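Appendix B. Raw example, untouched.
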Amino acid sequence: MSEATDPAGTAHQYGDGQRRLHHPALLERFRRDGAAALAAPGVRRDLRYGDHPRCRFDLFPAPDAGADAPLLLFLHAGYWQGRAKEEFAFLGPALAARGWRAALANYPLCPETSLDGIVAAIRPLPAAVLAAAGGAPGGLVLAGHSAGAHLAVELATGPGAPAVSAVLAVSGVFDLRPLLGTPINRALGLDHDAAARRSLPHRVPAGMPPAAMLVGGAETPAFVAQNAAMAAAWRAAGNPAHRATVPGEDHFSVLDALADGRGPAGAALRWLRAAATGR
């Protein structure tokens, strides 16, 4: 879609507008650091939570974090149609260094399956992670980046949700209706009803755990607005919410800030830890 047929720039806001010249080098570093993280002793690779070949997760040790360390389950980006947990495995040891246990998961992708199918496929994931980890006495935090942030909130708010201590949504897309007229929807195949059904801000229930919504200050206005709307909806339902913008960071460099624990990203992690552990 061109700007001429998309006068609001929606396709740009959710596509090319989020790209930066340094992303190829940054993502290559993520992959390189992730490969080293996955080769470290104690990592449990490709544990199953379903029958689909992509229903797998990796569990990272945190030997110095203590038995009561909170457990963070992370779902990756890729607009529900690409990428994989291995590309973000660098987060495992980075979180362990800050006293967290971590699991990173894959999920089936569009167009092989529908978005409804993805949501159904990941329902067993938290229980499988808890079982593999021997429980989470320090609390379970559901987390995700971009499309993964949407899926983390779907897990937290959906039927049969486990006992979740907190939610971390990084640079999420929560209202899917703006995607309908963009190239992103070619693989998703959403119509208006499906986009409305899978959109989240209008269906946040009361009684949800604390949630942190984190976004890079250098992301497009559409992404900043998505995260603001999700935090507002969380609060409007009577649930605790922490909203933070990380100045100067874009859609992928915001993960660097999270891994380094710096600035508002580090503050969000500390807020989540307090929410998960009660201290």
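End of appendix B.
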